[in-house]
UniProtKB/TrEMBL annotation:
Stored SMART domains: HTH_MERR
Annotated GO MF terms: DNA binding; DNA-binding transcription factor activity
Protein name per its UniProtKB record: DNA-binding transcriptional MerR regulator
Domain HTH merR-type: 1-69
Keywords on record: DNA-binding
Annotated organism of origin: Kutzneria buriramensis
Listed Gene3D superfamilies: 1.10.1660.10
């Protein structure tokens, strides 16, 4: 057989056959007097096996190992690894489809149901937009909103939180050196620890640098609000 006939019977291109020769996957056949390659049945069988293994997902290096008589890993071992990879892909696809189904059920709302529930508590509140973004950031960093749920389960703490938000929003138009900034930071000195005390014990730590996190949270705040937030954090860390 000539190379075109071999490729046609195996269902591959002549370019593929030549590539397999170059990388040593397919041995070079004997050549006729005119210089053309002359393929035999064993070459066709080897090429068919190689094509089948490639279709299963093996790399060309793994195909070479599998087809070798005297070296490389056992073919069953390689196929088992591929099967495990495919199972993992199926799991990822199932999780993605589940997330898509949830998104479709929410009419395309990218916020999680937990986040929506938290924001419902802040409906019509001056701090709703800012706190919503902060909650979404916290959910992304930690993976849940258990802390918010704990706070919202305490009516007294919830009302105080909403009152603090309202006062904080009122700082937007004042000077950062206005006494109101220091007064608010001092009044909520015990608020942060009270909230953090409700943190579930299994919440993972946040690896983000505190200054980076503060910069992200304070983006868009006025100078007075940023200074107040820094004072609050300073009090809470003492």
């Amino acid at each position: 057989m000539r190379i075109g006939e071999l490729a046609g019977l195996a269902g591959v291109s002549t370019r593929t056959v030549r590539h397999y020769h170059r990388i040593g996957l397919l041995p070079e056949p004997r050549r006729r007097e005119n210089g053309y390659r002359s393929y035999e049945l064993r070459d066709l069988v080897l090429l068919l096996r190689a094509r089948r293994l490639v279709e299963l997902g093996l790399s060309l290096e793994e195909v070479a190992d599998a087809l070798s008589d005297d070296r490389g890993r056992d073919l069953v071992e390689i196929i088992r690894e591929i099967d495990a990879d495919l199972a993992a892909q199926q799991q990822r696809i199932a999780e993605q489809r589940s997330a898509i189904a949830t998104l479709l059920a929410a009419d395309g709302d990218l916020r999680s149901p937990d986040l929506v529930a938290v924001l419902d508590t802040l409906a019509d509140h001056p701090a709703a937009d800012r706190e919503g973004m902060a909650a979404e950031l916290l959910e992304s960093l930690i993976g849940n909103l258990d802390l918010y749920r704990s706070v919202l389960a305490d009516p007294v703490l919830t009302q105080r939180m909403l009152a603090v938000y309202a006062e904080f929003e009122a700082l937007v138009d004042i000077s950062p050196n206005d006494p109101a900034v220091d007064e608010l930071a001092a009044r909520v000195r015990d608020f942060g620890p009270a909230v953090l005390a409700m943190m579930p014990p299994d919440v993972p730590s946040i690896d983000t640098d505190p200054e980076t996190l503060l910069s992200a949270v304070s983006a868009g705040m006025s100078a007075a609000q940023t200074r107040c937030l820094r004072l609050m954090l300073s009090h809470w860390q003492q």
